[in-house]
Amino acid sequence: MLCLFKKDKVSLRTVIDLRKRNDNTVKDITPFPDQDEIREHIARAIYRSKLDMTNAYEQIRIVPADVLKTAFKTVYGTFYSNVMQQGDCNAPSTFQRLMTHLFRAWIGRGIFVYLDDIFVYSDTIEEHERLLQVVCDTLTKAELHLSEKKVDLYVERMECLGHVVDNDGIHADKDKMSLIRSWPVPRNAHDIQRFLGLVQYLAAYMPDLSAYSGPLSDLTRKGRIFLWTPIHQRSFDCIKELACRAPILRPINISREEPIWLVCDASVAGVGCMYGQGVDWKTLRPAGFHSRKFSQAQMSYTTTEQELLAIIEGLLKWEDKLLGRQFKVLTDHKSLEWLQTQRDLSRRQVRWLEYLSRFDFKLEHIPGSANIVADALSQRYASDTVDDVREEHEYVLADRRLDPEGEDSPGIPVMAGRAVKPTWKLREMREREELRAKESHELNTSRSNNNRGTIIPLPSAEGEEEPKPAPTSEQSPEDGDYDGRIPMRQKELSAMPERHDLSVLVNTEEIVNVIKDNVAKDKFFGRICADIKAHPDFEWRDDLLLYRPWNAICIPDVLYKRRRVPEIIIDLGHSAIGHMGSKKTVSYIRRWYWWPTMAKEIIEFCQSCGNCQMMKTSSQLPQGLLHTLPIPSRPWGSIGMDFMGPFPQSGGLDYLLVVICRLTSMVHLIPTQTTITAQDAAILLLREVVRLHGLPDTIVSDRDSKFIATMWQELHRLLGVKLLMSTAFHPQTDGLTERANRTVAQILRSLVDSDQLNWSEKVPATELAINLSVSSSTGFAPFELNYGWMPKLIGYPKVNTSFRGVQVLAEQAAENIIAHSMR
Question: 734 is in which domain, residue-wise?
Answer without folding.
Answer: 638-787
